[in-house]
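Exam review. A common question shows you a sequence with its structure tokens and asks you to describe the fold in words. Practice with the pair below. Do the first one on your own.
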Amino acid sequence: MRKYYTRPCNFYYGKNARRLIYLKKALPLNGKPNIAFDQIEIFSRHKKKIKSNLIYFKNIKKLTQAVKRVVTKDLKNIVSKRNNFLKNINFSETSIMGVLNLTPDSFSDGGKFNSKKKSFHRIADMIKSGASIIDVGGESTRPGSNTITPKSEWQRIEHVIKNFKKKHKSICLSVDTRKSEIMLKSIKSGADLINDVSGFNFDSRSASQVKRLQIPKILHHMQGTPNTMQKNPKYTNVLLDIFDFFEENSHQKFNNKKIILDPGIGFGKNLKHNLTLISKISLFHSLGFPILVGTSRKRFIGYISGKHDSKYRTGGTLASVLFLLSQGVQIFRVHDVKEVKQGILVFEKILLN
């Protein structure tokens, strides 16, 4: 566990960002010329006590040697362009991951697309609407859900996984599973990405198998299991605890290779935890990996909106996506692809003008 953490902040966009980078008054985020920052927030952790200090990036030289060493290393990751290790995905651009739940009990769309015809119609529709990644899952991980057998899970997704690349060769296929058996079968059938909400902790064989096959993976954070995760989740500091989880697991399990980070909004987090992670998401850039966030239709939106809640929570989803986009997040996992794509296109046009 480290003592110091570096978060880029005070962002600029478009022409203003490019001008400030040229004048060396700001730094590019992830090597992007259209988003820059000139301040950093330095968190210091000593046991359970957390302190925060906001400084202009050129004042790093005034820091103590121990702090300067960490911050300098973090800044190198923050400003570096991300390697494009995922098929047909450019991490310098915004990507949408469309959700295909082939389950009878997912929290918002369980049972809607389970037939072969409906599933491929749904895939085609999401791709046409702007999704460049399709995330296929056969086991619900909603709060309170129970584990199913690998056999049952594979029966639900087998047809889609085995036939996906026949129809959509240039689209990235992601498989949402916690089980090594499903991972291996999916990779054999052409999967490009493995998305394990347990952070590769549910199945003891999953991390080693994925590492051996050198396939891109999403390192997702979840406290507890889907059945227990929302029963009074607790952290010393949710932001720094999850950072430590990412840093430790990315190195120990995968040697820092082909990793996308997902802080797991709603997976073992209460409303305050979720809001902290979203508002301070830029901290994770200092780990040097692309970031994916899934806020689509999630419960925290209903808690905030109260009597103004809606069935699909499109407004709340889009609001969170656009804020996260302004913080440099690269990938968004969503159900309503067309609406989110439209929002991103308009927001980026305004932001980068």
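Now try the second one, then compare your answer with the model answer below.
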Amino acid sequence: MKNHSFSNILALIFSLSVCSQNKDESLFIEKNKIEIGATPSESVLKIALSFIETPYVASTLEINETEQLVCNLQGLDCFTFDENILALYLTKKANSSSYSDFQDNLTQLRYRNNKIEGYASRLHYFTEWVRQAEKNGWIKDITLEIGGEVTAKEVHFMSENQKLYPKITDEKTLETIIKNENKINKKPLSQIDKTKVAAIESQIKEGDFIAMTSTIKNMDCNHVGMAILQNGRIHLLHASSSLKKVVISEKPLTEYLKENKKDAGIMVLRVL
């Protein structure tokens, strides 16, 4: 009787998993029908706006015991919001309607050298995510071009705060994390200080990805989203942890930054 009950539970879990996967594929098909705009920026913005009111869900990539690709269009955190938008755009740009192609694009965005080889192969630091996407020719970091400056900050947050990352369970994973941090630190981080964002606001375009750099020791970015114009001002379209859904910030970006003590400034990334 107990074995029978356990089998029923496993069958239910599998059924729910399949239903969730089917729902995500259906959402992909729906969003793949969005007509791309005249420019890449216009296109990604149209895709991003289709996610308005989508629930914010934290730790969506931590659901499996072993590292594997997670496709979740039903609930997003700030990082997966930007990531899914770009993967959807790349799929549409290639004139593909294949869910498998979307998954391939997501893998190429999320994992170092496009390979899933355990937890440490995921691009955990947004800076490294940006650099790989830039290397692949998908985005351009224009932070320095529009008034940004290099900083002396380095990233060591994951290796120095292992208790916050339960999947760093062995020395090999930790060593790989440290190796990747050291590689990131070979190139200086850059930002536009939040006190200077107002002066360069006119150079930010709708559809640019915006990353909030961090005041927290050894962390590169706190939060990411997308630029959108509202009444002539740049606002933030993002998956909000406080409002628990994808929203457009009530206040312009400059005011939003002033109210967030953890934000040091921004990086600005343009889709190519």
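Model answer, second protein: The chain has nine helices and eight strands. The chain has one domain: 2-271. Full marks require stating both points clearly.
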